[in-house]
Amino acid sequence: MDHHAPIRKSTVGARPSPWIDDELGEAFSQRNMLKVLAAKSKSEIDEHNYRTLRNYAVKLNRREKKLFFNNAFIDCKNDSKKVWNTVKGLLGTSISSCPSSVEVDGRIITKPVDIANHFADFFTKKINLLSNNVNIHSSRQAIVQCIDDHIMSNKICSFSLQTVSVEEVLNLLKSLPDGKSTGYDLMDNLLLRCAAPQIAVPLRYIFNWSLEKGMFANVWKHAKLCPISKDCKEPATPANSRPISLLPTLSKILEGIVSRQIWEYMENNDLITANQHAYRKNHSTTTALVDMTDQWLNAMDNGKFVGVLFLDFSAAFDLVDHEIILTKLMHYGFKEVALNWVQSYLTDRKQSTYINGSFSSPHALNCGIPQGSCLGPLLYLIYTNDLSYALAETQATIFADDTTIYAAGQSVQQVQQALQGDLENIREWVCQNKLVLNTKKTKVML
């Protein structure tokens, strides 16, 4: 890519507002000319003409701007990303704001690479601190007990990875979307899509070699981490930023192939718990809310009290233990090559934080599943799939890492006892699976 399409820097001037057409542009030009003329002549007539045209230009600008955004909202009403980008354009807020300087140990650092290293150190230490504070008391038998007794009981099924055809790879390359940020390898979707007919065959060979040997390329394990400020009006700091992980596009294509095969296996064999509403066909946050509120209202109609506990896990995706997820996959019927592929996919990963055109030094990731990946969310669902079977007196509705348990009873005391009992069961499950329950964000509602 560097030989055929090297990256070059160019200076791009500010673009005019998209609603400025020829009529409005001409009005602005005439206004500016009259302003200069009035300032030179000091004539009341010239001043009057300037103010008249100025007011006309202001009204015309407001009208065209309103019309532009009305049409923009109509065009993107079914695309939430476009809607929010349009809102940000209307409000004049930027999507992200990288700091030009930060204070570290009483001194100000301004070099982008030093700032990137400071952010990278913070993100790594945060995960390591949580990981080191996990209350570990787990045994392999306890971890897989629910899977063997409930999910896989009376089921004979197994999963093996299947190779792909050139046509499938070609279609995936041609369907790559525009406007996506590049990963650490700086490989742009547009270039891959344009080169699809030429690279589909060698990519198919690489993908199938990976699937047959159970190995994932190390070059695709390097993530580009972009800190995004949680407050768009303030520059990002390590504490108030959300790290967005960007992976190589070719990595995500192979992940997507594997993810679809695993989904098909899990769904066809009814292995995903029914109360999980994330990432599944015909499931969403809406179905999760309808499921919960319907049960609550039915209980209240029958004169019962309803208690709800909203659980929050700290850095759930980042704390997934590799040994535990592989153990669970084995009990779900994954064959040796498939297990080796997942192990290779999860291990030896690293990430570099990217700020103002500079990368930090690479930081190794010893646990967790890749953020920003196609396969990561599915692996997390499998990792927590047995959580609801740890409950004895309550029911659960789950959306990814958001878990809500609830109980109904004839008295508040009965509801309280049910919630407290299963909260202890969840704490036990959390300890076994090396996760962390965020008690500060866990809320209760009666």
UniProtKB/TrEMBL annotation:
InterPro entries assigned: DNA/RNA_pol_sf (IPR043502), RT_dom (IPR000477)
SUPFAM superfamilies per the UniProt record, alphabetical: DNA/RNA polymerases (SSF56672)
Domain Reverse transcriptase: 209-446
Record-linked CDD domains: RT_nLTR_like
Domain of life: Eukaryota
PANTHER family linked: REVERSE TRANSCRIPTASE DOMAIN-CONTAINING PROTEIN (PTHR33332)
Name of the protein: Reverse transcriptase domain-containing protein
Organism whose genome encodes this protein: Salmo trutta (Brown trout)
